[in-house]
Amino acid sequence: MNGQVLGSLEFAAYLLSALVTLVMATWLFARRQHAAWSTGATAAALVVMAAWALARPVFGPDGLLGRLLLSMSYLVWLWVLYRMFARDGRHESLGPIRPVVLALGFVGLMQIALALAVVGEPTAFGVNELVRLGVAFRLLFCVGALVLVHNLYAGASLAARRELRWPAAAMALMWFYDLNFQTLSYLAEIVPATLAAVRSLVPGTMAILLAIGGMQRATEQTFRPSRAFAFQSISLLIIAAYFGLMVIAFRGIAMAGGDFAGLLQVAFLVAASAGALALLPSKRLRGWLHVTVAKNLFQHRYDYREEWLRFTRTMERAEALPLRERVVQAVADVTDSPAGLLLAPGDYGNLSLEARWQWPGSEIPAEAMGAAGMRFFADSQFILDLDHWRAGRHEGIPASAVPPWLADDARAWAVVPLLHYDRLLGVVVLARPAYARTLDWEDFDLLRVVGRQLANYLAEEASQDALGEAQRFDEFNRRIAFVMHDIKNLASQLSLLARNAEKHADKPEFRADMLVTLRKSSEKLAALLARLGRYGGQGDEPIAPVPVRSLLQSIAERYRAQHAVIALPGDEFTAEAQPEALDQALVHLVQNAVDASKDETAVVLDARAEGTEIVIEVSDSGCGMSPEFVRTRLFKPFHSSKPGGFGIGAHEARVTIRAMGGKLDVESREGLGTRFVIRLPRPIADSQFPSDNKIKTEVA
């Protein structure tokens, strides 16, 4: 009774697999023009698989048609595999592939010949040696095909693997299952009924895997030219070891005997498959294998032609990532690091975070590395192995080169400087790869060359930005020329009015028109002068003590009719500054704060003494700015977040404050507001009184 139920389930499973496979073949054939892999050949292979799935239950496991179709499906899938290698000519660059394919094709033809030779003969293993030979050929085919599937996937780039994983998984499933199935059949000299029944699910499962892969967006397949012969040899050794383990384990199961032998065989197959699936995708295992093979079988660790091609491909993909993230990725690709950071020179001689690539979550301080650490990397051109440093090897490495956040982050593995004509344009912090190894001279040489090349990219971008800025300054100068033209027209009008007044001053109508003209000209001239005054320089104004609290109160009074600007009360302080220039810089910042704030929210001005400095704060509760805008665009001219704005105000304010020996910083959060902080030197006499260091203020 149980046998009949199992037979019925097996029959239904074969029919269902055949139906699913035919549907999948039709779908793939219909979209063959848009797919990323060889879907036309895959559809043909699925049709042959569907025919085998139909013939197997109809004609029985020993039917000639079923055995012929199974052998033919092997050959067609081999053709599909070769087509995937041939998409970008990889079959031409990898010499061992074509002989392997030809050898497997010959083995497949021998299977067909053996199937025809045993027609009408008994098929028991113990009686007909041709059957045993056919199974041996099938085992050989499975081993060789799995080697090709492994090299197809292992030799592909990360982008190509996303497209290849599903067809490769489908073919690996078929040949991996048949490898186990045929091995057990060969050793036991009988076909295991349970495994034969489960085999009915293989075509349908392959169709499902191919459907998942077919629904992914097609992309160009590019493969890395690999050192194929070495990796194929390693793959063969691994499969041979697995094969030997299968033989030993099967002999142990056979010795157990009894009614549980079949159940133990199935359990062992599941356990072996689970172990293989768990180990083979391991990044750490693959990284160890890659490093071991490259270290022991080749003169050089790197294939420099491939490294250069990969570097070029990464830097050319401008549409994929911003330049600075591509810079990090290009360095990380050399060492197979999964992530990285770019630290670039800031405004005060230090290094700050410029870009991240696949490195989320780290809290990196605004000053990522101080000026001393930056000078060390600029002068020494040293590539720092952080594992060595953590192990206590600090010879010649100052503490400033490894700030606390970098030493504490276990992901940080190496620091690579980017130098352009001995000028440091940044450093790249690399994350630890899946298999971390000790960096040697070959790594250092390649990383130095790559770092210098990437510094050229950064320098070129900086030059382009400077050229664009100069062009925008020219445009700004042209705009000022238009303003000067308007002033010239006003002067001409006033000159004409003065000449006419000599002739018609006694006429009441002329005097009335003259007053109107004078009023309009005065208003227009005042507006033009106000516009010019915003961008006027104060470079010749002398430094003098400036009463800061009074200045803030004066500015708040000016904005009384426009917007709520509150100057907090408190003690008076004096700062060493240019009075008119400081007034102009504060007006820039207050105007920006007013523009960013809603009508009902006030802009707050405050001042305090901190040691030898006077600190002035301009705070608003407006829309705020993103960290990226603050870091890259806020203080650069002609970058404005306001429609029609020149983008000059913040830039002019910072230049003005620096000219007086001060500093201008900003703190901002989107949706919460912004605070500009000006630091100016105090007069020497005032800085002697510590009682001014802390001032209590009350908000009215």
From TrEMBL:
UniProt keyword terms in alphabetical order: Kinase, Membrane, Transferase, Transmembrane, Transmembrane helix
TM annotation in the entry: 12-30, 37-55, 67-85, 97-119, 131-154, 166-184, 190-213, 234-254, 260-280
Superkingdom classification of source: Bacteria
E.C. code: 2.7.13.3
SMART domains the UniProt entry points to: HATPase_c
Domain called Histidine kinase: residue spans: 482-684
Catalysed reaction equations from the record: ATP + protein L-histidine = ADP + protein N-phospho-L-histidine
Pfam (any one): HATPase_c
An MF annotation (GO) of this entry: protein histidine kinase activity
Record protein name field: histidine kinase
Organism: Croceibacterium salegens
